[in-house]
Amino acid sequence: MDKLLVHGGATLRGAINISGSKNASLPILAASLLTAEDCIIGRVPDVSDTNYMIQILSALGASVERSSGTVRISCSDLAVEAPYELVRRMRASICVMGPLLARKGRAVVSLPGGCVIGDRPVDLHLRGFQALGAKVEFEGGNIILTAPDGLRGAEVDLCGTHGPTVLGTDNVMMAATLAEGLTIIESAAAEPEVLDLANFLNSMGAKIEGAGTRRIVIEGVKALHGTQHTVIPDRIEAGTFMTAAALAGEGVTLRRVCRDHLKAVTAALVKAGHRVDFNAAGDICTVYRGDDPKGCDLVTAPYPGYPTDMQAQMTALLATTPGLSVIKDTIFAQRFMHCAELKRMGADITVDHGTAVIRGVAQLSAAPVMASDLRASAALVLAALTAKGTTAIHRLYHIDRGYEHIDEKLLLLGADVQRVRD
Ligand code: EPZ
Known about the structure:
23 strands; four-stranded mixed sheet
């Protein structure tokens, strides 16, 4: 296992390219199961989550070639059971359910376990599949979906107690592309990654309208064909580096971003007293640490609200921002594992009922800390950038799940980091 040594105090400046979106790549890779023809997907980030998905597709019988960021997939013949050993490692594996059910009339996928950010139910996914006529059974820790006579279009509301479901919307939308008749998804997730998946599916011959809004209409077709597609930029990686720049930057430029996807994150950084400039095309931004940063309150919400995937990173920034800040996570109330580690570095944070109350301190102090999940680990790296001393962040594999070459990018920006064998 690797750890990352971060020597605090370096000033970040310069420019890096943001990678393709992990959370757009995963459902798009799964969607390639819907056709026997070749799909060529560009700018797939080289992170362990996309590698897991590629292993799952291969285990299902797909032939997959990867060269740098481009993945070529062809699924002429398919098995219907995703291997437990791979599925258990990544919740997003569940998004093979929809394509397998639509293409083969059957899918067997292990129930995803919970994870440190909370219980990860799939009831909304199953609600959608049942609405389309699938039978749902459970056996030996697996979900068994069958639709021997094919799927039929239906109207379904996918709103849960915490609002829309991103992968649930993806799954039902993928299944509906080959259902007979019209499907209407109400309370759909509107994340840019859902729209990117819909664009990919439409380029395969699907008939989807309304993706990116709360109401998606899918007219089923007989078959889908191969396609080529480049995934959108990773807005959470971009937000993470924007926050690093607000912490320790004197003009950090991020290329290959999408301004429209970063409105909530930009507004939060400006509210906290920092400066974010975009070029006219909106695909390059430069972030400057403000002279007078101030605490602020944030509530996470489904897109276009402030993303839960950026909650930990903002907590790290506000830990050394003068004043009182309150962050509430309405999507994952337990997503505060990073706070215990930040407190070991001297942060003043109280967490209760899905809310963190943060009193800014002058400076954190380095300490050996433990990464726990993808975004919490990123928050610890950010906190270490301005901490006094050298912070060792153990279990770096959590970060490698979703950040492509994070240490190389930080070094390019002048951070004093070192990846070492743990
Ligand atoms: C996606 O997960 C993202 N993952 C997550 O990013 C992100 O945090 C999450 O959406 C919310 O934005 C990918 O896209 C691969 P949800 P997903 O279904 O789709 C509840 C990261 O860091 N819910 O939108 O699995 C659920 O418990 C990852 O990159 C149900 O109740 O999340 C949560 O409270 C972490 N029943 C809320 O809905 C269901 O059937 C939103 O979850 C499904 C979800």
